[in-house]
Amino acid sequence: MKKLIALLVALMMLGTAAAAMAETLTMGTNASFPPYEFYENEKIVGIDAEIAAAIAEKLGMELKIEDMEFKAIIPAVTTGKIDFGMAGMTVTEERLQSVNFSETYATGIQAIIVKEGSEIKSVDDLYAEGATWKVGVQDATTGDIYCTDDFGEDRVSKFPVGADAVEALKTGKVDCVIIDNEPAKAYVAANEGLTILDTQYAVEDYAIAVALENTELLEKINGALKELIDDGTVKTIIEKYIPAE
Does the pTM of the predicted model rise above 0.85? Predict the structure, then answer.
C-alpha cells in the first residue's frame, strides 16, 4: 500500500511539473465580434476561441486570450506582446507588410445594416452619383479599409467596436453600418428596427496573424490547422455557432 501511495504521489508530482512546464500561447482578439469572439459571463468564447484552443492543444500548449481594440492586434503581434492575432481577420496587402497569415479557416461576408424603411435599398445606392450617405464601420477593420477607399474619409465614421457603430445608426449619426455578416445578424437581433440588406458589400477569407519573423510558429499553426480542417473539427466548431442552412 505504501508503494502504491508513493507511486501515486510521484505521478501527481510529474503531472504538476508537466503542467508548469507547458508553454503559453497568447492570442490577441477583439471580443465584440460574435459569433467569432464574444463574452459569455467573463469568459471569451466563440469560433476563433475554440479553434485557437484546438490548435494550442495540438501543439501541447496552454492558450491565453487577451481582449484589445481591433486596431491594436497587429501592433501587438509585431512587438511580441501576443503570439498571434485571431479576430475574424482578413488578409490584405497592407497587413502583409506587417505580419504573416496562416491558411484561411473561414469565409466572411461584409453586410450592410440599415434602419427599416431606409432609402438605401442595395449596395449600388452607396455608389450612386451624388450619394452622401454616411457609413459607420469598426475602426481598422476591412470594412473600414474598403469603405474609406470606396467612399472617402468624409463619408466614413469609425468606431472602436461594432456596437458603437450600430448605436450611431440608431441615433441617426450614420445612415448604414458595414460589418461582417455574422456580427451584423447578432446586432440586428438585439436592436429592434434594424435590418440587413439582401446584398453583400464584400466577401473575404479569415486567417491568423503571426509576426513576420516567427516562421516556426506560423508553420506549427498551419500544420495544426490543416489537421483540424481535415478531421472536420473546424467545420464542427463553425457549425456550432453558425448552423448550416
Answer: no
